[in-house]
């Protein structure tokens, strides 16, 4: 029965005093901080017990003084251990998207609004075991970055994180749990494959005769934020002072549709999404204008970081037709 209670989320939420996920800044109140003796602490307590028994048996005044002095130091250390963690504020930071198989970098900001330092605070991700030790100065904020494996595409929740400290004497271990409401977008693992042929039929082909490519120089145009620095016409910039980009013509850089229907039907959904993710990266490297078609969704052609992020987000969050 005890084992069943330990794995019951409702019991754990009641016991630890919060219901996940927690939004906004999380303040570790005194009710959320737990403390137990460490192995060294139990050995210290046993030593005090032996000293006390010896002092009673032999009526040693100095023995009593030493025993109670050490006991007082231990109690003071217990108070400081709790004080090192209590009333600390924890808030989540931004988690940048990653590809499946990589590690998501979750950021937590530990805000110490007290007038004293908080050394040696350990943050550990319970599911993966990723951990980091930081010192939080007085009236300052420290950042903790937890590298959590991202095994599958979609939304990856941070989950439960334990904050722990054994400062200053390592006789007691104080800890608390937090579960911020923060997610990381995990893109499908890309599979390298040749791009599908560009659409070049009817009037659309004529309208796309001169588009950005990498082969033949066709002129200059105004610089855009998504342009590669290698294509900037630096000599023209030096003469005129305006940022200009070289234009090239190349059939491979025509408008490309990355269509779900062009992926092999014999493979599973995840493999098809991985193939589309590889096409998105290949089209972006080539500088092509590309769009994405999924069952029930379509993203208009474009190029640049915003287009890349929009397409990869659609692939990461795809849940079927």
Your description of this structure?
This protein has 321 residues and is α+β, with helices and mostly antiparallel strands. The chain has 3 domains: 1-186, Immunoglobulins (Immunoglobulin-like, Sandwich); 188-209 and 252-321, no CATH class; 216-249, no CATH class. The protein is built from 8 helices and 17 strands. It has helices at residues 2-7, 9-16, 39-58, 61-83, 202-207, 234-240, 269-286, 305-316; strands at 26-27, 34-37, 89-92, 98-99, 103-112, 118-125, 131-136, 140-149, 154-157, 161-165, 172-178, 183-187, 216-222, 244-249, 256-259, 290-294, 297-302. It has a 5-stranded antiparallel beta sheet. The longest helix is centred in the N-terminal third of the chain and has 23 residues, at 61-83.
Summarize the structure.
The protein has 321 residues and is an alpha+beta fold.
* Count of separate structural domains: 3
Number of helices: 8
CATH architecture of the largest domain: Sandwich
CATH superfamily of the largest domain: Immunoglobulins
Q: In percent terms, what proportion of residues is strand?
A: 25-35%
The counted number of beta strands is 17
Q: Give the spatial strand order of the biggest sheet.
A: 2-11-10-6-7
> Percent of residues in helical segments?
25-40%
**In CATH's first tier, which class of the largest domain applies?**
Mainly Beta
